[in-house]
Amino acid sequence: MIIMNEDSDSMLHDLEVLDNAENFIEWLYSKYKSHIQGDILEISSGIGTYSKKIISDYPNSNITLTEYSENDVKKLKKEFETKKVNCKKMDMNVKEDYQVIGYNKFGTIICSNVLEHVEKDQFALEQCFSLLKEKGKLILIVPQNPNLFSDQDKELGHFRRYTKKELITKSQNVGYKLVNIKNFNAIGVLGWKLNKKSKQTKNDPKMINIFNNIIPIIKKFDDSITSKIFGLSLIVILEKTK
To answer: Is the pTM higher than 0.85?
Structure first.
């Protein structure tokens, strides 16, 4: 499965591997694309794997891409910045970063595999709530099932893996309305368990390529059967209410 490491060179390599996993990228993107509306904030844009799709599909939206470090923001600016796309530094633990980006501004915030890295996740949910316009949507993709927490999660810098109950409670305490919550990538649970047992913490490009190639087959079962029971991740759609 896809694992990102804290070492910058390893992380860059992992992001590049993911960028080539087109079937997986399309599969995940298809799960939340229909909820994107208005001006868009993408938290932790990486090397722009999903940014490219968002910019292409929503040409009339003002789009803000973000990254944790100034150096990564510079790279995003070089690649993507235009009149409709701007790039900002964002550490989800730092209130000033939210203030600079601007409150009551976005129709959609996309936060994919980021919240688990944030120690004060309740604070981050509150700040995202403030960034959204009324009826704006927060799209979250997070790892689920605390029983799967492993050396991989530690290597990734995860503070937690979520349960549905935990995430629903935290979001509703902020004031979000739950629009949808669903499991994603059931077969990934098997890969995660195997890696946990073997204490694997590095990406294997060959295995990722194999996984990517079988996505067209397994996603049919995942979408209709297995994801109704379990999944490696949760996809959560939240709406800002009064």
So the answer is: yes
